[in-house]
């Protein structure tokens, strides 16, 4: 073949070889680069706005071990590094606000075993090259903006003991291959967007695991993996809000070392397995709240006497709590509210010395609060409203010095309210409304912090204690619905009350005037003896003018200034100058097959294949535009023909392509072949390709035209995928393969060329093509077989080009970003898609564009199974069209002709 190449091409080949050689050197000669060089290479691809890495400089390369975040092994005599210091073993660059690209250079650091890049702004998929960091023991990438799936390649890091990917935006399934990371002790995948079901054995091999965090992945939908119970070293399991359903497996009983188990905010149902807790001797914290668990709670959860936090609230239990809970001497926080429990509240619970919070409101608990509550000296908060508690309020309650909230409304408490009820120096909320308490309201003795006092709907008698007026921060007083008598103390005027409700008592006398002017009369109603201006009974002595007194409501309005940051998306596209290749005349004899009547001879073709007519060079060869003697113009694509295909099957394959007829598929008029070459003859489309258009700096198609291009291309692909026999994959969808006719109707070209040139050379050609990478679905790197979903991905990229007005790759900008990354980053860091839309398009199309953006994002999902089919894409795009294709028939000439 070299004999046919002319000198410039040979030169090109030579240059390529030199580059290849250099690249190989860079890879294989890793040892040749010093650690400092590698770190500098890492730094060069990173944005460092806070200059945290400013001491990483070539001039200080000798002191690499002193650089920020770098730790080295102890220098050894035989150390390879020139400076005599050791190898870089650890890189700790947490919270430096770094962004940019994580460079593969990291993994060439021969001694590197710890990486911590947590708390930065890296906004990219998990770099595949981490799989080459085989010595890595800990990898902490938490709290970044990483997206994409958890790549299978990560499972090659078999030395990892710690993997923290928490607080990112990683999606997709949790790979079963995780089992090969069998040394893992800490695995944090929490606060991500993982989805799908967990394989029952996904963690089965991780027998060293002590910490597992899958929490806050509400997009998962899974049962609890059964094999979890085999991981005997587990100490901490966080799976709150992780889309779990089904029951709690019996196997969890085997986790003898478990200290923390949080399964809250899931959809777990069923009964708690019998004996649950018996094995959990070290359990400190159990949170099963906000599920749908039912049945009773039949077990001694406090087996090891170390449990300090038990949260079962918001469930559908029906039974009683075991008495044994009352012996849970370490318990500090107990949350049982809204969970359906009934029966006797275990009395022992009231006197646990470490208890700080008891919440049990909205259940059907019965029982009394014993005086021994005084031994629960650390109690801060008791909330047992809406139960069936009875008995007296114990004196012991007043002995609790830390209690700030005691709320026990809607129960059956009776008897006097002890006069020490507010002795706690921090007491601020007392709510005993809706009980059967009686006797006088005791004058509070201490109570400097009391804010709210509700004793409504009881049987209190006597006068309102005037001592209430001495409480400096008292703001809410509800004494309504009692049997109180006497006058309202004048002193209460001095309080800054927000609520004062004494309605439905037997109070009498003159209401302090500021209590009237500041409050609606309804707070006083039902007290026939009260008098004052504005009341039904104005006091006799004072004949004031009746005034309408309105409640002065303090309305606080917040003004939210909504700043909309509009980021102008500068688009500087550049023509890519076509590579002109002068070619000599073609050797050998030619055979031609035409599917359309064409006035063309082999000689015409031969003559046309010259430098002047060459308009570009694609992945597979040059493209020529040839004017034929008859006046027609054709586009000719010259392919290098691998001899693997017999001439006969070549004819068959080309015919297959030629027979694909669709208004949005470029016509293949015929083809010629000779030794080594194939010429594919296509209809010529004068407007060039969509890719050319997008790359122009003045690209300004209006949205309806863009939508029609997208729809046409989608229909063509759907036709190839579904309607055409045999089904064809395009395999090279990109905007430069979408040609535009005079009416800007798109025509897809260059499809299924693999069938002509053969798989091997097809792959080679595509891989060598500049810029094609942006269109390739991520799985194309590792999956052998081409799929429809890969075409869908590529189409999604084209759609993004149409929506953003950005070419798929902007080569000249400093951070050369493909449009998918650009869009994902924008979405990750801003709210809503507005900043992504091409600013050159008028706002009136915004809704349609946002809908198209949503579609494009689904098409470019990293997970093939999340991408729609081309048929679904067609339907979605059709639904965005205001007027369907019928319109020309109905309305004659379309307004868009003005664009022509
Ligand atoms: C590293 O820094 C320490 C203190 O900052 C200094 O004493 C030491 O000389 C430095 N080592 C080198 C090799 O620069
Ligand atoms: C971190 O970087 C972001 C942009 O990348 C910037 O908005 C933010 O202010 C930076 N924070 C600090 C502490 O430098
Ligand atoms: C990862 O690093 C962050 C920031 O330093 C830290 O808060 C977190 O605990 C680390 N993860 C693990 C599992 O140690
Ligand atoms: C499970 O762990 C063992 C080491 O304990 C390892 O050799 C094996 O490859 C792992 N199996 C899987 C399926 O990952
Ligand atoms: C729980 O399951 C029900 C249906 O079974 C579903 O409607 C609901 O969204 C689920 N809730 C959560 C938090 O997953
Ligand atoms: C009292 O608790 C029951 C049972 O949880 C609930 O249905 C009811 O709405 C609650 N009543 C009030 C007033 O909160
Ligand atoms: C005041 O108490 C009465 C009787 O309990 C009640 O009907 C009314 O809603 C209460 N007003 C306010 C504002 O709480």
Automatic annotation (TrEMBL):
Keywords: ATP-binding, Glycoprotein, Leucine-rich repeat, Membrane, Nucleotide-binding, Receptor, Repeat, Signal, Transferase, Transmembrane, Transmembrane helix
Segments traversing the membrane: 549-571
Keyword Transferase: yes
Domain Protein kinase: 609-884
InterPro entries tied to this protein: Kinase-like_dom_sf, Leu-rich_rpt, Leu-rich_rpt_typical-subtyp, LRR_dom_sf, LRR_N_plant-typ, Plant_LRR-RLKs, Prot_kinase_dom, Protein_kinase_ATP_BS
MF (Gene Ontology): ATP binding; protein kinase activity; receptor serine/threonine kinase binding
Membrane topology note: Single-pass membrane protein; Single-pass type I membrane protein
Signal peptide residues on this chain, from the entry's feature table: 1-25
Any one Gene Ontology cellular component term annotated for this protein: plasma membrane
Subcellular location: Cell membrane; Membrane
Protein name per its UniProtKB record: Protein kinase domain-containing protein
